[in-house]
Design brief:
The complex is a heterodimer of chains A (168) and B (289). Chain A has helices at 2-19, 21-24, 34-46, 48-66, 72-90, 98-120, 127-167. Chain A is an all-alpha fold. Chain A has one domain: Arp2/3 complex 21 kDa subunit ARPC3 (Orthogonal Bundle). In chain A, helix 1 (2-19) runs antiparallel to helix 7 (127-167), helix 3 runs antiparallel to helix 4 and helix 4 packs antiparallel against helix 5 (72-90). Chain B is 37% helix and 25% strand. Chain B has a single domain (30-277), classed as Rod shape-determining protein MreC, domain 2 (Thrombin, subunit H, Beta Barrel). By secondary structure, chain B is α+β, with helices and mostly antiparallel strands. Chain B is built from 4 helices and 12 strands, in the order H-H-H-H-E-E-E-E-E-E-E-E-E-E-E-E. The N and C termini of chain B lie far apart (84 Å). Classes of the chains: A mainly alpha (168), B alpha+beta (289). Chains A and B meet through helix 1, helix 2, helix 4, helix 5 and helix 6 of A and helix 1 and helix 2 of B.
């Protein structure tokens, strides 16, 4: 329960930041995709199950607040959270660059997947070139934000987890 | 054993979530703008907009500051810019300038409204686009102020877009630069009618103009007042949308691309006004019995 509340706060905060601060501070015309960022980081910290749930919640959150085609982000982020959580289990490296690289790759992959689904539904605005450009720029933007966001989310995850263990 | 059971549980969960997403996509796709999911989306908007307004009020003075930093190319110039900005903030100069600018923008808007004798509601922009794939803004007035879907939205200088969703205290505006936006327009000199289509951050595309019609760069493009396909309302006639920026002839010489620069600066949209007055019903123009 505690974790669910903490997570809801994180999602809403990220959505607010995305639609206010980051709508103004763009990188080459692209905004960061904070939902992708927090899903990937959550999956890295907590594993595939929590990754999938977080992705689903974040995706649904964004879809409904967008008032746009609903469910596509939820689908993309559920899969992304699960896959990243899985992949993370097979990578053994102490390198601090790992989260940054994983975030960049997962964001680009996720946006392309989103674009594919939206395209199949006939709801992709902007065309293929724009999609690829956005995927690259947003991945870069997310990667830049990772060193700032990762420690914060890690602390959120750890504090909500520690209380739970203590109670038992 | 325990591990594999847990794995299976996770897999089932993921499959369940994916199915839920697919059901949502399908339900939304079939339900369209009136389905139950659209209503849920409006409810979500109702929750997020007050929060957005609060954040927007806090970051508004600092927002333009960050934008400036971001666009400076070299560190040296950035440093100078920072120092200059810092001085400004210390003297609360920033706030004064902002107010002055808003004042100027309001005056421009007022001129536009008075020139066309329109009944309008003024609003502030409280949120930008949520993602990379749409060109919409959230404004701080909604259905309780009389705003409804498809109402035209003006910005200082000219047409900004139309309302696509409302809550009681906020509304979502689709800008004319959104690729899904099409506005019925006419060229000011020839009077030729065409359709102006959004093209993201690039100039707008003017379509359906006859190849023989003379068009020159700088020519004003204004709303025609014709009924735009797919909309319930029409944009009031004679509102400036942009001016012809460039004419790119086709290689074959059989067609050309007309690019139109929007008159509104969408990168720094802060005040808008929504046209309330009911547009004339197309049936009104039919001869009476």
């Amino acid at each position: 329960m505690r974790r669910a509340i903490a997570w809801a706060v994180v999602v809403v905060t990220a959505l607010l930041l995305q639609s206010t601060v980051f709508a103004q501070v763009k990188l080459g015309g692209a905004t960061p995709e904070l939902m992708y960022l927090i899903t990937v980081i959550m999956a890295m910290i907590e594993g595939p199950e929590a990754g999938a749930i977080s992705g689903f919640a974040a995706g649904m959150g964004q879809d409904f607040l967008l008032n746009q085609p609903k469910g596509i982000n939820a689908l993309t982020l559920t899969i992304l959270g699960y896959v990243v959580g899985r992949v993370r289990q097979y990578i053994v490296t102490p390198s601090p660059a790992l989260p940054v690289l994983l975030v960049a790759a997962a964001t680009a992959g996720g946006i392309l997947f989103y674009g594919l689904v939206a395209y199949l539904l006939g709801q992709l605005p902007g065309g293929i070139v724009f999609l690829f450009k956005t995927a690259v720029l947003s991945a870069l933007y997310n990667a830049l934000l990772t060193p700032l966001v990762y420690p914060v989310l890690r602390r959120v995850a750890e504090s909500s987890r520690a209380k739970k263990v203590f109670r038992w | 054993m325990a591990v594999s059971r847990r794995d299976r549980g996770t897999r089932l969960l993921v499959i369940g979530l994916i199915l839920a997403s697919l059901v949502t996509i399908t339900a939304d796709f079939r339900g369209g703008k009136t389905g139950p999911l659209a209503a849920l989306g409006d409810a979500a908007l109702e929750i997020i907009t007050p929060l957005q307004r609060a954040v927007s009020n806090v970051i508004r003075p600092i927002g333009s500051f960050f934008t400036d930093i971001f666009q400076v190319s070299s560190i040296k110039a950035e440093n100078a810019e920072l120092k200059r900005k810092l001085d400004e903030i210390q003297g609360e100069q920033e706030l004064v300038q902002q107010l002055e600018r808003e004042n100027a923008e309001y005056e421009l808007l007022l001129e536009l409204e008075e020139a066309h004798a329109l009944e309008t509601v003024g609003a502030r922009v409280i949120g930008g686009e949520f993602s990379n794939f749409e060109w919409t803004v959230t404004i701080d007035k909604g259905s309780s102020d009389g705003i409804g879907v498809d109402m035209p939205v003006l910005a200082p200088g000219g047409l900004a877009g139309r309302v696509v969703a409302t809550t009681s205290s906020a509304a979502l505006v689709e800008l004319v630069i959104d690729p899904g936006s099409g506005v019925e327009v006419r060229l000011s000199k020839s009077g030729e009618h065409g359709l102006l289509i959004g093209h993201r951050d690039q100039p707008l595309l003017l379509d359906l103009i006859d190849i023989d019609t003379p068009v020159e760069p700088g020519e004003a493009v204004e709303t025609s007042g014709r009924i735009t396909p797919g909309l319930d309302r029409i944009f009031p006639p004679g509102i400036l949308v942009g001016e012809v920026a460039e004419i790119i002839p086709d290689e074959s010489g059989l067609d050309r691309e007309i690019l139109v620069r929007p008159i509104v600066d969408f990168s720094r949209l802060s005040v808008v006004s929504v046209v309330l007055a009911e547009q004339p019903d197309p049936d009104d123009f039919l001869p009476e019995d």
